[in-house]
């Protein structure tokens, strides 16, 4: 029986290597520069996640094996279980498989030297070779429960083998760090095959159990000065003390599998193996670029406390209104989950105030989020064909936004006599270019931003379309005269024939002619206030000065204010955030505008641009697209390792490519 299990493990490993889209150079697994720059992330439907580097060495304060919400404390995420250190004991020798970073550039222990293989799909899997032992380790996060499981398989052993597991606990908000203290509760309660404990009052209890009976040795102690180099690089506190309550120890036979679980609820040990296997069986394989993106898209939609929301990015972003609406079509509609899209729209609509949506947290300070709300509804309508239903369910909210913008609302957002939207007050950044340094926006964009007014025009036209379909004559009479006025004012205000592109923002007589990507939105919207000749000129300008293999720069390199790298402390990084840094999400609107203009002839260029992102899935956050990239080559990945709108817009590009390819084939077949 043991040989059968061992043989099946080997067969599974061969099969996974053959099918895996995301693969790693085995020779580089002992190279710290290689393994520490690549990060893992697994999430569940509740917003809980497990994350680290592919070698298991935490390099961020956001890393941890169980990072779960604690609504009873602050409704934020908290690192409960930071890591689990494994030690193989054989013939009076100890082999430590873990690795941590400590002061002085010291890595200890150096368990990475025992890693012979690592695979990402369907679950992260490591193979260690120590002496005569071959041990396989697999990690899975349960989709419906705040529980992480680690399955250990003793593939081979030539003498009696014991495995020791030592959990390191943090019990702190994921934005902060843990320091040794006298308040930590060292008491624990014995439960079936394990213990449960909570370090501090107010926290959920953490239950740690094994699938087979194990000896638990209580040795409560603090371990000091774990270092997180990526926090140091970002200018933050980077040293942490972690608490170990004790360790689990059990013997293993060749071919045997044992599961360790850490959960916010006590489980029956006999269920652990079945739970792990069931979760693994339900994992959708990521055999190609598209499947990898679709699999990652699921990680952003969180259902908790009767709300369905979109997490803007991992690790440190929460729900952002603007990002939600921009991400929704790619995350849900393209992946054939329209009911999920509707649920998110309903959740967000319930939180509207004064025609505005909450952006970060409870800050209603986004001028573009309400207009992207219209675009998300528009995409939902196009995908489902439920136009009358959209007007019935969301029409009152849509009218509320339009009335608020027309009559005026917070932050000096109002429609002018020429039909265009003016927005902004000193000290606030209301558009997506929202970095603030020392209380001052880096790109304030007070006045009439170009994409805001394009979205405004699109929103009114879409609402009128729905009103026509639904026979809402009252709304039609109120708004029908406005679109031609807005279109004429838009061209007169933003367009310059000699320059051949659109001003980024206009405030009175001042026009900002910085070459920025915001104008590309004008080319992609279903209803645009400009003619195709202007769209063509805009796309050419953007292509020549802003387009990179990783998205669009936020400022032309020809501009004296351009910053080509995103690096340093927060102030330095924020000054570069929208001053040249590349954003992948903008690629979606460039691609859509380009395909609308060039049709089937634009397919090869956009497909080349889209497929060029495939290698990035193995460079920063595994199987995901980063938040941003450097403006300068080689366009290094920066920021959050997994960003919702980055992933979403690439999925939407693939959808558009398939759509235009089908149209091309249909046209050819009719000849």
Give short descriptive properties of this protein.
18 helices; 671 residues; eight-stranded antiparallel beta sheet; 26% strand; disordered N terminus; alpha+beta; 33% helix
In what range is the share of β-strand residues? 25-35%
Question: Helical residue percent?
Answer: 25-40%
Average of the residue pLDDT scores: 94
In DSSP terms (H or I, runs of 4 or more residues), the helix count works out at 18
Q: What does it look like?
A:
The chain is of the alpha+beta class and 671 residues long. Strands 1, 2, 3, 4, 5, 12, 16 and 17 form an 8-stranded antiparallel beta sheet that branches. An 8-stranded antiparallel beta sheet has the order 8-9-10-11-18-15-14-13. A 3-stranded antiparallel beta sheet has the order 26-29-30. Strand 1 and strand 2 (49-53) form a beta hairpin. Helix 5 (289-297) packs across helix 18, helix 6 (321-333) runs parallel beside helix 8 and helix 17 runs antiparallel to helix 18 (644-669). The N and C termini lie far apart (64 Å). Mean pLDDT is 94; it is low at 1-18.
